Amino acid sequence: MEYREQLTRYVANFVDELAKSGMTDVVISPGSRSTPLAMTFAEHPSIKEWIVLDERSAAFFGLGLAKQTKRPVALLCSSGTATANYFPAIIEAYHSRVPLVVLTADRPHELRDVGAPQAIDQIKLYGNYVKWFHEMALPEATNTMVGYTRSKAARAIHTARLDNPGPVHLNFPLREPLIPDFSLEAIWGDDTEESYLPVYQSVKTQSEETIDSIITLLQSKKRGVIVCGPQVDENASQAITELAEAWGLPILVDPLSQMRAGKHSKDNLIEGYDAFFRSETLRQELKADFIIRFGAMPVSKAYLFYVQEHQDVKQFIIESHSGYREPVGNKTTFIYSDPVTVCAQFMDSGRDLEFDHNWLGKWQTMNKVAKKRIESVSDDYLTEGSTVRSLFQVIPDESSLYVGNSMAVRDVDTFFLSTSKQINVLANRGANGIDGIISSGIGAAAFGKPVTLVLGDLSFFHDMNGLLAAKHYSINVTILLINNNGGGIFSFLPQATERKHFEALFGTPVDLQFKQAVDMYGGSYHTAESEEELKRVLSNSYQESGLSVVEVFTDREENVKWHRELWSNIETDIRESVIK
After folding, report:
1. Which of 83, 99, 168 is nearest to 132 (CA)?
2. Cβ of 270: how many Cβ atoms within 10 Å?
3. Burial label, 338 (beta-carbon count in 10 A; 0-12, 13-18, 19+)
4. Which band of pLDDT confidence, cut at 50, 70 and 90, is reported for residue 580?
5. What number of other Cβ atoms are within 10 A of residue 354's Cβ?
6. Residues 7 and 112 in one domain
7. How would you class 578 by CB atoms within 10 Å of its CB: exposed for 0-12, middle for 13-18, buried for 19 or more?
8. Cα–Cα distance, 36 to 50 (Å, whole number)
9. Which biological processes are named by the entry's GO terms (predicted)?
10. Using CA atoms, how far apart are residues 4 and 577, in angstroms rounded to an integer?
11. Which one of 107, 180, 492, 497 counts the least CB within 10 Å of its CB?
């Protein structure tokens, strides 16, 4: 068997096994050494290929697509520095637990470390940021090697998505010639539809003894708080809500918890905690006897202060699989179980719990006071807060919001109030970077459901080339660009008092007219100066095809004053109506 046939059958069996194991999408950045894999992906009838030229943008595009579909997405690039451009998105995928199958083409072994072009050391390139690395064997097509290539493909998919999902990396050394021969018969191997390595994973539960011991401990407590941080389990909202109502406890719901939107009961939800936790007095007033947290640490820095100041409070963290997400370092009991199942186990235990009947009411009253102020605050001009509030009034039901980091996610935390709309909220909160946000949002929109991306001007600047995918594939996406001409979040930090160096080092205004970039990528561009105008423009954008960018201009210093006045007013309102 000549080499070209061996190459074709080896690669084709690998790609076919990815499809049989559940992969539907691959993001390809063109290059020469990756030709066998790229052409074979394009030829396979069950895998959709997305061509994104820049590798950094491609990796974030795949990240957003994987977040939206909750399925592993493959990334494919050529050798050399192309592989290094994947790194930021791989780090984000690792920390935010997103399944990616990273495929890097490489020079064969005889061309490594000899000065050959586009040859760098790609072995374990991504270090500890991938769940598994494997250097693939050189292509052969014996029965043994066909089984080998299929087993590695199946293992890659299963490893990426099982337990805590994350990225895996397979490195492919490939010799020339690189063009597959698709005229060969039966290149996809056998006709079976089952994966080469079927894997069945059971739901993790706790023993009756463990549940009983936890409830026994809680019986001595009177005031508890349930916290739901960033998480993606679609079934968790109902289960956590039912547990909170059965126990009469408040639920502090992060904007990425998927609990602020949907059809479940909202009676025990506390969305305004970030606003009133900004007061040290209120943090002390609301000290709990225990905290039960589902998901990752909430976005709110004020909540971080709350936990830091109450290190003696008993804390339980419920995670589906083993891991450590407790940045404060407080003494914590970790419960590794399926959230839905463990909620049911708590309620089915047959043990009665009697907590302080006034405790939930206090939280609910404070939350109503905060929400009333958040909903009623108005100005003659658009602020960053009122911009985000207006967005939630018109965002379509059954859609997704992809939110950028820094100020954008914090305003979503404040102004995203509970709604019966079904809104899936996504963000790159694993490493909290501002790079790749446009590509991630457009990747999520590639799935076909309506997506609104809200971000700041620096995030937009960092990833303008991500707009090409929207143009190339006519992807429908609305981008709400909040432009305060710089890094607005730094204006809230102590660095803002260092006026001599602040603008150059932290404010970093770019003074760009983003309309020209939107025009270059074939999008429609709009601006708004009032809440009513913004709501009208956003509503119209959802009826447009392709890329639509709505830009709002704000002032960083005015934004700080506006937010601080809002938080101060909320504290005053609570003191006058709740704490007398």
Report:
1. 168
2. 24
3. buried
4. low
5. 9
6. yes
7. middle
8. 16
9. menaquinone biosynthetic process
10. 79
11. 497
Query: Which token pair is 227?
Result: 């916290």
Dump pLDDT digits (tens) for 328-343: 999 999 999 999 999 9
Per-residue pLDDT tens over the stretch 341-370? 999 999 998 777 889 989 999 999 999 999
Query: Which residue from 545, 495, 507, 552 is spatially nearest to 526, judged by alpha carbons?
Result: 552
316 closest CA partner among 286, 345, 344, 336? 336
Q: Which residue is listed with tokens 């339980």?
A: 316
Domains identified in the chain, total number: 3
Q: Is residue 251 assigned to a domain?
A: yes
CATH of residue 347's domain is 3.40.50.1220
**Dihedrals phi, psi of 105, to nearest 5 degrees:** -75, 155
Angle at CA 272, nearest 5°, toward 270 and 273?
Answer: 80
Cα 255 to the center of its chain, rounded Å: 12
Domain that holds residue 468: 377-567
Q: Are 302 and 277 spatial neighbours (Cβ–Cβ below 8 Å)?
A: yes
Residue-wise pLDDT for 362-397, tens only, equals 999 999 999 999 998 877 789 999 999 999 999 999
Same domain, 387 and 359: no
| Secondary structure of residue 263 in the 3-state scheme | coil
Say yes or no: 386 and 482 in one domain: yes
Instruction: Determine how β-strand 100-106 pairs with β-strand 73-77.
Output: parallel
Contacts of 85 (CB under 8 A, 6+ apart): 54, 55, 56, 59, 77
Do residues 486 and 510 touch, judged by C-beta distance below 8 A? yes
In-domain check, residue 103: yes
CA 239, CA 218: separation in Å to the nearest integer?
19
Q: 171 near 106, Cβ under 8 Å?
A: yes
